[in-house]
Amino acid sequence: MKAFIKEWGLFTLIVIIIIISRWLIWSPVTVDGHSMDPTLQDKEHLIMYRTKDIQRFDIVVASEPDGSGKEKLIVKRVIGMPGDTIRFDNDILYVNDKQMDEPYLKEYLEAFAKDKLQDIYSYNAQFQARAQVSTAFTVDTNFQPSFTVTVPEGHYYLLGDDRIVSQDSRAVGSFAKENIKGKIVLRMWPLNRITRF
Question: For the whole model, what pTM was predicted?
Answer without folding.
Answer: 0.86
